[in-house]
Amino acid sequence: MTNMNKQSFVDGLLSFIDASPTPFHAVANMSSILSDAGFTELDERDLWDINAGRYFVCRNGSSIVAFIVGKQPITETGVRMVGAHTDSPCLRLKPNPDLTTAGYLHLSVEVYGGVLLNPWFDRDLSLAGRVTIKTTEGIVNELIDFKSPIATIPSLAIHLNRGVNDGQKINPQTDIPPILMRAKKGITFDDLLTAELNKGRRRKISLLGHELSFYDTHAPALTGIEDEFIASARLDNLLSCYTGLVSLLDAGDQFTSVLVCNDHEEVGSASAEGAEGPFLGSVLSRILPDPESYYRTIANSFMISTDNAHGIHPNYAAKHDRNHGPLINDGPVIKINANQRYATNSETAGYFRELCRRAKVGCQAFTVRSDMACGSTIGPITAKEIGVRTIDVGVPTFAMHSIRELAGRDDAHALYKALLQFYKDKGTPGAL
Ligand code: CO
C-alpha cells in the first residue's frame, strides 16, 4: 500500500490550506493536483463517455467531485465515497461595501456561517475570492488573491471599554468592518479592485461582480513544544478535503472511488453545489445510467463524511460529556447523534473501527452533552439525498470556526491512513 509519510503529508496539508483562502481557490488547487495525477476534467455540459479511469468535475468553481472508475464490477463492489466541505466561516465583502467614517474607508461585510468573531480583531487581513469581469473575450470568472495584508479590524482599547474582559458583545454590522485606508476623495473600493485586476493587462477589464472574503495572512504552522499541533485557519474543513484528496490519489484502480467536496456546508448545504443539491447524485447517475444498476450499486456503497470534531478542551472540560471527550492525536473520531445530526449508526461505526484497526490508527467517539445542541455535517444530508450508508468522522480540534483553529499533526495523518484503507478495502465496503 502506498503510504505517504507523516512529514510530507503534513507539509502538503499546510501548503494546501495556505494556498486556499476561499472555496474557489481550494477547488482550483484540488483540480490542478488531480490533473497532475492524470485525472481528466469533465464538463457537466458535455456528453460523458465514462470508462475505467480517473476523472473530476467542478460545479460553480467551489464544489468538486473526483472519481476513479475501477476495474472491479461496480454493482458488486459498490462505490467508496469520502465527503468533505470546501467552505469555512468568514467575513464576506458586501456588493457595495464602502463606508467612510471619521476620515477612514472601511468595508461592510456579511458574516458567512457561524464565525467566532472575537479572534478576527487585530489580524493582518487579506482579501480573496472570485470576480466576474468583462474582458475582450466576453464575461468570465477569475480568481483573485491580494495575498498581502490590506486591512485590519482593530480592537477598541481597553481604556475605552473597561468591561471587555467580562464578555464582549459584537455587532457584526457596526463593529467589524475592516479598515482599508484613510479615505481619499473619489477613491472607492471598486476602483482599487479594478486597478488590481488590470495589473499586467493590455486591455482593461470592467468589473461586474465579486464574491470576496477576508482571511488571515498568518501562515499555518506547527505548534506545541513538540510540534504536535497544527494551527491554521480553515482546518474545518480543508484538512478533510486535502486528506480525502491524497487518499484518492493513492487509492489505486481496482474499486470505484469518489471524493466529493461541497461548498455551502457552513450555511446549511441548500444550493446547487451544496450537499443538499443534486451535484453528487447527478455524477453518480452519469457513471451508472441504468437505474437497476444504480440502485444495486448504491445499496453496496459506503460514504465516509469527514469533518472536524470537538476535542475536549482542558480549560473547559465540563463542556464535554465525560465519556466522550476526544483527545488530540489519539486518532479520528466517530461522531454519533441519536437525533441524526450525524449519520453514524452501529453498523457504519463498526466498519470504520475495523478500518482503523487494520490501518493501525486509534479511533475515538464523540457525542455532545445531552443538555447542549449538536452540530451537523454533510453526512446526514448526503445520506438522505443518495440513500447511501454513511458515517460521520473527523479529527478532534480546538477553536472550531475561529480564524485560527488547532488540530493534531498525528490525527490528520491517521485519518489519511484510515481513508486509504477504506479506498483499498476488498469486496463490498462494510458488507455484513
Ligand atoms: Co465543518
Considering the chains and any ligands shown, give keywords for the structure.
Aminopeptidase; six-stranded antiparallel beta sheet; single chain; 2 domains; Aminopeptidase i, Domain 2; 432 residues; nine-stranded mixed beta sheet; globular; alpha/beta; binds cobalt (II) ion; 10 helices
Looking at this structure, what is the CATH superfamily of the largest domain? Zn peptidases
C-alpha Rg, in Å?
Answer: 22 Å
CATH architecture annotation of the largest domain: 3-Layer(aba) Sandwich
Q: Which class of the largest domain in CATH terms?
A: Alpha Beta
CATH-defined fold name of the largest domain: Aminopeptidase
Portion in beta strands:
25-35%
- By helix and strand content, what is the structural category? alpha/beta
Largest sheet: 9 strands, mixed
User: What is the helix tally?
Assistant: 10
Shape: globular
Mean pLDDT: 96
Q: Summarize the helix and strand pattern as letters.
A: HHEEEHEEEEEEHEEEHEHHEEEHEHEEEH
Report, as a whole number of angstroms, the end-to-end distance. Answer: 25 Å
Count of extended strands: 20
